[in-house]
Specification:
41% of the residues lie in helices and 17% in strands. The protein has helices at 10-20, 42-48, 91-96, 106-111, 115-120, 124-128, 140-145, 172-182, 200-226, 247-258, 276-287, 304-311, 322-328, 360-364, 367-376, 379-405, 409-416; strands spanning 50-56, 59-66, 69-73, 75-79, 102-105, 134-137, 150-152, 157-160, 167-170, 186-188, 236-241, 264-267, 296-298, 317-319, 331-334, 337-340. An eight-stranded parallel β-barrel has the order 4-5-6-10-11-12-13-14, surrounded by four helices. Strand 7 and strand 8 (157-160) form a beta hairpin. Helix 9 (200-226) runs parallel beside helix 10 (247-258). The structure holds one RNA strand of 82 nucleotides.
RNA sequence: GGAGGAGUUCCCGAGUGGCCAAAGGGGGCAGACUGUAAAUCUGUUGUCGACGACUUCGGUGGUUCGAAUCCACCCUCCUCCA
């Protein structure tokens, strides 16, 4: 197991070796509920949850304790919406590509196979055979992405299922109950991810409603956690900041959200159409109002240079479908930019995707072979491409953590922020 | 040897006198994608000194103001009969 700059991720190697030693018959929770990772004592717990190890400028290096293990931050969460990373990547593969924490989706898993079924089968960890931390998104993004299929009210959102058209209702309570059934380590509050641009008055009213929803989420979250049948009694909850591209709304909403005690706080509703600089400006505005002692999660972001720029702005958690989706479409990331492996230029190239990459794909396969697999429509093409891209994103974060540990993050940022935005 | 059918741009295949550089599909080439309704979507695919010009629909010649489309001959392929 080789992780670029993995000296600070020794625990990963440990987890991976444990994973390899597992046999099919041992398909059980690796960390039983009876052996919590941290103390359940409430006071003690709130202190140890997020440890800020160091800072460089606004960039933060930390460790976040989840029920299924620690997460070294800043971190990129690998997205497996329906309990699987698209592109035929299993939880076992995630270990090999350096994934620390996986993200799945409330709305999608509720629709299929159903959260109650997953609870019946022992929770999402057991279901997908992933023993590391899981964050579940609340369905708030689907309020945005399925805009043609839903109706919002104070109570919640009525969706027309994108699968069969049947009407389903999801409000704060429903979302929290589903996430409790899934048993994720981190549950996200149910919010409305507002499109950009949207009228000021609409965004304001939406933010006020999202605040009311957060109160309801908190209440239901506590209730679910205390149930004797709770899948994960240590599940945490993150609140979400909204406010479109209006700094004053963003700041006001962040201040109000921070008043509601959560285990972490997220910035949502960005990278949904606005200019990149606008996104950075919003983060600059909001960051100052985010509790220092809690992890910050920038939802749905982003490109490699976005990640570097946002770590520089004090963000700890990220997630994005981009590396996986782009991989499936042939766009691969390298330490000198990106390339489209389907392009003719790679037709007879015997070299790896990226000579600087230690991933299993770069160690074994040529660009020419990858291009051939894409041209032939082989599913191995997607699998290898996704493995590479996710490895790259995880390695990028690992490199940033290393740079932070060594006090040379700004140096790293100067070298790579622009470089990674360009073509290989 | 006789009878019938067919040859269209990289491939398959529409088109049977002007609105045809020629539908559609495939393939090729390129682009997009940011809490995943995405193995999706978009553009492009004769040449050039490019809002125009030139060359193209098996070949040659002809009819016509005008031909991928009509006529003659030739070439190639397919089917059936000897």
């Amino acid at each position: 197991m080789q992780l670029k700059g993995s000296s600070n991720d020794a625990y990963l190697a440990f987890v991976v070796s444990g994973m390899y030693n597992q046999t099919v018959n041992e398909r059980i929770e690796i960390r039983p509920r009876s052996m919590p990772y941290f103390s359940t004592n409430k006071q003690k717990r709130s202190k140890v949850l997020f440890e800020l190890i160091s800072k460089e400028g606004r960039a933060r290096r930390g460790v976040f304790q989840c029920a299924h293990g620690p997460v070294q931050t800043p971190v990129f969460m690998n997205v497996g919406t329906q309990g699987a990373i698209k592109g035929a990547v299993s939880a076992q593969d995630l270990k090999e590509i350096g994934c620390q924490i996986e993200l799945s989706n409330t709305y999608h898993l509720h629709l299929r196979p159903g959260d109650k079924l997953i609870k019946e089968l022992g929770g999402l960890h057991q279901f997908m055979h992933w023993d590391g931390p899981i964050l579940t998104d609340s369905g708030g993004f689907q309020v945005f992405s399925l805009s043609g299929l839903r109706k919002i009210s104070e109570e919640g959102v009525t969706f027309s299922s994108h699968i069969d058209g049947r009407r389903i209702f999801m409000g704060p309570e429903e979302s929290m109950e589903i996430q409790a059934n899934l048993g994720s380590d981190i549950a996200m509050a149910f919010d409305e991810c507002v499109e950009n641009p949207a009228p000021y008055e609409y965004v304001k009213a939406s933010c006020q409603r999202t605040l009311r929803w957060l109160e309801r989420c908190k209440a239901e979250h506590s209730r679910q956690r205390s149930l004797s049948a709770a899948v994960n009694p240590q599940q945490m909850i993150f609140g979400i900041n909204q406010g479109g591209i209006f700094p004053d709304l963003r700041i006001w909403h962040m201040q109000e959200t921070a008043k509601i005690e959560c285990d972490g706080y997220a910035i949502g509703g960005l990278a949904v159409g606005e200019e990149t600089q606008v996104m950075y400006d919003i983060i600059d505005a909001v960051e100052a109002y985010m509790p220092v002692e809690k992890p910050r999660y920038l939802m749905g972001v982003g490109t490699p240079s976005n990640l570097i720029e946002c770590v520089a702005r004090g963000i700890d958690f990220f997630d994005c479908v981009l590396p996986a989706r782009n991989a499936r479409h042939g766009k691969l990331y390298t330490w000198s930019g990106f390339l489209n492996i389907k392009n003719e230029i790679h037709k007879r190239d015997p070299g790896p995707i990226d000579p600087q990459c230690d991933c299993p794909v770069c160690r074994q396969f040529s660009r020419a072979y990858l291009r051939h697999l894409f041209a032939s429509g082989e599913m191995l093409a997607m699998r290898l491409a996704v493995l590479h891209n996710l490895y790259f994103f995880n390695a990028l974060m690992s490199q940033m953590r290393k740079a932070l540990d060594e006090g040379r993050f700004e140096e790293f940022r100067a070298e790579y922020s622009q470089k990674l935005a360009g073509r290989a």
